[in-house]
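On clarity, I found the account of how folds are encoded harder to follow than it need be. Since the whole study asks how a given chain folds, the encoding of that fold should be made plain. For illustration, here is how one protein appears when written out as sequence plus structure tokens:

:::
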Amino acid sequence: MSRGDQNNDHDSHEDDWSDFDFSTVRSERDSLVQSIGRANVLKIIFTGLIGGMFVWLLRLAIQNWVMSPVFCRTYDTATICANADITSFIIALIIVGLITLAILLRNRTYQPTLTAVATFVSFFALWEILEQQNVAVAIVASAFLTMLLLLIISLLATIRKMFVSIVMIAIFVLMFWFIVSI
């Protein structure tokens, strides 16, 4: 058999698709967003509600049981005592943010670190609004707004292109800070 005959014989076998299983071929394109699922959405909502409530409760506990008793005794610590409310809020925000991150990791939320960090950076902007409210209103507003922020940022984090996701989240956080500062 000549070399040309071998090539022609080989080519004819390449076009034979009779034994190929076409059911294994994916014909649809990948979605631009990762699917979250109803169960994960409910977990995110619950985590946001509980996390937002605990930020404010932990802030009050730290302020009343740690900051005031420890730092409001002498004149040397007067500046710490004067800023005990914001300092305790920041400490509570960091603690609850880390716990929320652990819960998001456990629940296998898509992009949990990005979601938790962006949510609690956004939440820090709410200090100006929430500090003026009474305790009950602040706890309810904190829980609801944290849930809303966590849910929106989680949805933005599901964008498969990481750069686009980060840019969209950054724009949302900046817009949120701007709206809250008005």
Observations:
- Residues 37-181 form one domain.
